[in-house]
Amino acid sequence: MIEQLSVGDASLYLTQVERGISPLRDNYGLHVGDDATLVLERRHALAKHIGRPIVWMDQTHSADVALVRHDGGNTPAVRSRVQVTLGQTDSFLSERDPHLWPQLPCDGVVVDARSWPQAPAVAVMTADCMPIIFSADKGRVVAGIHAGRIGFTTGIILHTLEIFASLGLSAREISVYIAPAICGQCYEVPVEMQRELAQLMPKIAGATRWGTPSLDLPKAAAAQLHAAGCEHVTIDARCTLEDQQWHSHRRDPRSGRYVSLVVPTWENA
User: Fold this and answer.
1) Which residues 6+ apart lie within 8 Å of 113 measured at CB?
2) Which residues touch 44 (CB under 8 Å, ≥6 apart)?
3) Which secondary structure element, helix H or strand E, spans residue 14, and what is its range?
4) Where are the alpha helices (DSSP H) in the chain?
5) DSSP 258
6) Whole-angstrom distance, CA of residue 115 vs CA of residue 72
7) 183-232 tens-digit pLDDT
8) Where are the domains of the chain?
9) Looking at 61-75, 141-155, 165-179, 253-267, which range is the least confident one?
């Protein structure tokens, strides 16, 4: 099942796990021991469902965010290229062959779809970590980030906002959707870890339903976004550990990954 929502005029799709017993059913991750052929077939079907190519990431819990846009050249050959900026490095992909695009080595992607009718969607794979979706300029500039504990606490949200700012978009213009992740009442951690992180982010400290220390990543992320100037932040309160329709690594370490997919809107403005 694929659930369709929206965020800031962009379309948001969440893949859900159908009934069954295999921990890898409806899995979109290539790194979890699933049959690669089956995973690629699912990815192809998902791209066909939304009618756009998809940018996938090789997620490693980093705070690295790539910017994807048209090259902007004046010749047909150059206009068919897609420019990927990651840090200080630019690389190029062929717009004509999106099925050959590699997974980008990062944990966040911003797509500038202004003047790009068939701009790709961004896929974020998770199984308890936070998928965070951004949308601005009537959905024509979007982002998807994989914000686990490490990536979040090392600044991936702020790095994403910096890229939006470089594109002329302030935080108050961005709508943000925090998709299903493990909730603050389930994400149990050692007390030392909680104390250390709470010194940096007081809103991150929580307690489990059974009274032990926890981290509330969605609450802390929303607080950071508000502090940065984002006025439109939505938390999807569904918990991946509690709700069987999502993959959860804590529930089953053999689990696959579900996808939060943001599709940019294009208007000939």
Assistant:
1) 119, 140, 141, 142, 264, 265, 266
2) 99
3) strand 10-15
4) 36-50, 76-79, 149-153, 156-166, 191-200, 217-228
5) E
6) 10
7) 999 999 999 999 999 999 999 999 999 999 999 999 999 999 999 999 99
8) 2-85+100-173+239-263
9) 61-75
d(CA 151, CA 129): 10
Question: What DSSP element (H or E) covers 133?
Answer: strand 130-136
CB count within 10 Å of CB 169 equals 19
Instruction: Return phi, psi of residue 139, to 5°.
Output: 85, 10
Residue 200 burial (CB < 10 Å; 0-12/13-18/19+)? exposed
Closest CA to 135 of 105, 160, 99: 160
Superfamily (CATH H level) for 2-85+100-173+239-263 = CNF1/YfiH-like putative cysteine hydrolases (3.60.140.10)
Question: Beta strand 10-15 with 2-7: parallel, antiparallel or unpaired?
Answer: antiparallel
For Cα atoms 33, 38, 42, give the angle at the middle one, nearest 5 degrees. 115
* 115-130 core/surface letters (b: 16 or more CB in 10 A; e: else): ebeebbbbbbbbbbbb
How many Cα atoms sit within 13 Å of 100 on the Cβ side? 8
Half-sphere exposure for 218 (CA within 13 Å, toward CB) = 25
Report the distance separating Cα 219 and Cα 204, nearest Å: 7
- The DSSP output letter for 147 is E
Beta bridge partners of 67: 85, 110
